[in-house]
Amino acid sequence: MNGEILVDFDDLLQAERELSWLLERIRADEQEARSLYSRLDDWNGQSANVTRGLVEEFFTGLAGRVDSIGQQKAELIRYVQVMKETDNMR
């Protein structure tokens, strides 16, 4: 090898599919978690406020991770497109 990184095109497409699947699962799980969380609306007191704060922090962190995964997927899609264009130029 001469220092080149070899990536199989099919592997990149598989990675894109897996990222799509992961995002779908995370979004579905988040919906379920928010549904369960909404059942706590009538919970009062300091422990309820602390728990709500922790749950909101969790959802904020989750949104950040979903955004990050979405950005990685977009970068992968751009990279795949560049590879396709480069391959077509040969």
Describe this structure in words.
The protein is 82% helix and 0% strand. Helix 1 runs antiparallel to helix 2. With 90 residues, it is an all-alpha fold. The mean pLDDT is 89. It is built from 2 helices and no strands. The chain is elongated and about 65 Å long. The two termini are 21 Å apart.
Q: Write down how many β-strands occur, each being a DSSP E stretch of 2 or more residues.
A: 0
Class of secondary structure makeup: mainly alpha
Poorly predicted ranges (pLDDT <50, ≥5 residues)? none
Describe the largest sheet: none
Q: How many whole angstroms does the radius of gyration measure?
A: 20 Å
Give the fraction of residues assigned to helices.
over 70%
How far apart the termini lie comes to: 21 Å
Helix-strand pattern? HH
Rounded average pLDDT: 89
- Number of alpha- plus pi-helical segments: 2
Shape: elongated
In percent, how much strand structure appears in the residues? under 5%
